[in-house]
Structures are given as C-alpha cells and as structure tokens.
Specification:
alpha/beta; Rossmann fold; Dehydroquinate synthase-like, alpha domain; 2 domains; 15 helices; globular; binds 5,6-dihydroxy-NADP; binds zinc ion
Length: 388
C-alpha cells in the first residue's frame, strides 16, 4: 500500500426491502420544493412511482417532475431539466431510477445556480462547481454504475459525438441513497447483465494497475468472487433476492472510491466504451463488454503478474504446469466464458459499430495513463478493430 490519500464518503445508505421507509426521515431535512427526476416509464409500471409520490405528499412537498431521462442522458435533456428546476426554485432533487437518472440529477444539481453553460464548464473544461449545489437523494432501481454513492456524472453530446464523465467532489455525491434489491427484479435481462458487467469492469479498471501489495486488490478480489457467484444465480433465477442483493451491494462498493485508494487506476475500457457509446448510444455495460477482451489481451504482457494473480485469486485457476503467460491467459479465457454464459454482447459490430466509424471512435477515446500501458492512437485503432 504505497499511496498518499484521504478517504471520505458522505452518502448515507439505506439497504434492504424496507429501505424506502427511511425516505420520509431524509426528506424532512430539506426544503419544500422537490424536483422528482426519473426515466422512461419503468417506475410507473412497477409501482415505485406511486410509492415515492405518496411519501412526498405525506411530507408536504411541493413537487415538480422531470420525466423521460433517457439511458445515456443528453445535454439537451440537461438544459430542459435546468429550466424546470429553476422555475420550481428547487431545494432538493430526488432521482428515482438507474445510473442515468442519478448522474443526470447530479448534473442538474451543479448547474441550477450556475450562469455558465454546463456542458462547456463541466464536460469540456472539467471545472469544479463554483456556485451553490442543490442536494440530491437517490432511490436506485438498477445496479451497476455505483452512481448512488459516487460523484460521477456522465452526459452525452450527440452533436459533438462525445460521451464524457465528470467525477465531481464529495459535495456532489448523493446525500443519501435507498437501495432496495427488490426494485431491480423488474429489470429486463439485457439490462441486468449489462449492469453486472459494468460492476465487474469497474473493479477491473482499478485492480489492473500498480505492482505494490495493496489492500484494495484483496478487497477487489473478494468483490469479484461475490459478483461472479451471485451473477450465475441471478441469470438462472432472476427473482433470487439473495443474489440480487449481493449484486446491488457489490455495485456500490465497486465504485464508491474505496477500492481506488492507493491505486493509480486504469479506466481505458471505459474510455473506449464511452467513445463507442457516443457513436452508437448503446447500453453502457455492453459497450464495455465488447471492448474488454481485445483490450485486456493487448495489455496483458505489460501487467503479466497481475493478470496471473487475477486468474488464480478470482477464477480459482491452478498455476500447476502453467507458465505465467498461460496462467494469465487462462484467467482471461475464464472471464470470457463467464461473459458468454451471462449472454453479454461480445462484439462492437453487434452494437452498431461499422468500419467507417473506427477513426472517429479513436478520436473520441480519451487516453489515460494509470494502467499497465499508455496506449497510442494506432494501438487504440488496433483494439477497436479487434473488438468488431
Ligand atoms: O428509463 P426507464 O424506463 O426507467 O428504464 C431504464 C432504462 O431503460 C431501465 N430500468 C432501470 N431500472 C429498472 C428498469 N427497467 C425495469 N425495472 C427497473 N427496476 O434500464 C434502462 C437502463 O437504465 P440506466 O439508468 O441507463 O442504466 P445504468 O444504471 O447502467 O446507467 C447508465 C449510465 O450511467 C453512466 C453510463 O455511462 C450511462 O450514461 N455511468 C455512470 C457512472 C458513475 N456515475 O460513476 C459510472 C459508469 O461507468 C457509467 O459510465
Ligand atoms: Zn461503468
């Protein structure tokens, strides 16, 4: 464990099938004008909307709504929400949905009292908020992004063909999040498995960096083993509460800053996946699944010991009669087989990527330097071609 770091996470969590009961206590702490933000209709179909509205009424809140937050929320939708939030003189934003809704709520929260254009300020210039931040709370309905306990907010700009994430400071993290695993049971299988792979990849992005002996890596291995185990149960039996609750809990810990402590962290699979997302608007977890193996096979020689450890500690593969290279490759093959077993999309061409997009996607890929190799543009093109 080599780094110098601080650790603070201010989000209060309520977990379990009775967790919505705590919403009233939390809402009582904030002002009267609540902005209720949600997606394209799932919460109306499964009854969560009615439950939340009745609690808001009991609390005497004055509610305005921003419905229709789409997966991969857009900058145009952000401007629309800002208009409503300002007219309503919003005191508090309640996000009810998945990562898109939660990310969107954070983007609105840092922009309501800000005169600058939020896309330019936060997603082009990467500035920190200089204005009052409206507090956000979250009722999570999909496990995957970790947005419920982090400061990330990803917005897509289709005109610019860019999908950019800004990781804000602690003051933008949700004040509280309500995690009821039962709410995730109405997710279509496609979304459930995309979320599962998003969780797996968040852990990998942090795990595949550094060569020191680091407590974060041991925590990550435990989280990955739990996720793999629970995912196999959940794909067979989606109504299995125990499996769904373990998936929800690993999602939160995979990306709430804990396992990144003392790590340089990689995040190149996400940079590639986000660029694919900017061109295709595909489901986030699927974009990651489709680029992962070409990326990891490419960088494996540069982080060989860690890939061998991944094989042994996460996938339980014996080192006997294997070279380090063979062991490392066996780990990636085990991950590949698990991904196929879940039913993930393994090729970017299945997400709509065509040959003529490759150069543009490469241009939209931010190059980061925390992993085992800093890629150049030619290598990015090579990986993108191998992912088709
Ligand atoms: O819009 P509705 O009708 O609610 O349907 C949603 C949406 O179509 C549906 N859904 C959610 N909960 C459901 C449900 N359907 C039935 N029952 C339920 N209980 O699922 C679909 C996907 O939802 P979305 O919120 O888009 O998924 P996810 O949680 O994967 O969020 C993806 C967004 O988060 C960003 C991604 O880039 C993407 O924009 N990320 C945010 C991160 C962060 N804040 O740290 C990190 C991640 O790496 C990621 O980049
Ligand atoms: Zn992700």
């Amino acid at each position: 464990m080599l780094g110098n770091f601080s650790y603070h996470n201010p989000t209060k969590l309520y977990f379990g099938d009775e967790s919505l009961g705590f919403l009233k206590d939390e809402l009582d702490k904030y002002g009267k004008n609540v902005l209720l933000v949600y997606g394209g209709g799932s919460i109306q179909k499964n009854g969560i909307y009615d439950e939340v509205i009745s609690i808001l009424r009991d609390c005497g809140k004055n509610v305005a709504e921003v419905p229709g937050v789409m997966p991969n929320p857009t900058v145009e939708k952000l401007y629309e929400g800002l208009r409503i939030a300002r007219e309503h003189q919003t005191d508090f934003i309640l996000a009810v949905g998945g990562g898109s809704v939660c990310d969107y709520a954070k983007a609105v929260s840092v922009s309501i009292h800000c005169d600058d254009d939020p896309w330019q300020k936060y997603y082009v210039r990467f500035e920190e908020p200089t204005c009052e931040i409206v507090p956000v709370g979250c009722v999570l309905t999909m496990a995957g992004t970790g947005s419920e306990m982090n400061a990330g907010s990803v917005i897509t700009n289709h005109d610019a063909k860019l999908k950019i994430g800004h990781v804000f400071g602690d003051n933008v993290m949700p004040k509280f999040s309500i995690l009821n695993p039962k709410y995730t049971m109405t997710l279509p299988k496609y979304q459930m498995i995309a979320g599962i792979y998003d969780i797996m990849n968040h852990i990998c992005e942090q795990y595949f960096s550094g060569e020191d002996d680091n407590t974060s890596d041991y925590i990550s291995e435990g989280l990955m083993r739990s996720l793999i185990h629970a995912s196999r149960i959940a794909v067979q039996d989606p109504q299995n509460y125990e499996a769904r609750s373990n998936i929800m809990w690993t999602a939160t810990w995979a990306l709430n800053t804990l396992v990144s402590r003392g790590k340089s962290t990689d995040w190149m699979v996400h940079m590639l996946g986000q660029a694919v997302g900017a061109y295709t608007d595909a489901t986030h977890g699927m974009t990651l699944a489709a680029v992962s193996l070409p990326y990891y096979r490419y960088i494996m020689p540069y982080g060989l010991q860690k890939f061998a450890r991944f094989a042994a500690e996460v996938w339980g593969i014996s080192a006997a009669d294997k070279t380090t290279e063979e062991l490392a490759e066996a780990g990636l093959s085990a991950m590949e087989a698990w991904m196929q077993e879940l039913g993930l999309v393994m090729k970017t061409s299945e997400l709509g990527v065509t040959e003529d997009m490759i150069e543009g996607i490469a241009d939209a890929t931010l190059i980061l330097d925390g992993g085992y190799r800093v890629l150049n543009r030619d290598e990015i093109v090579q990986i993108l071609k191998a992912s088709m």
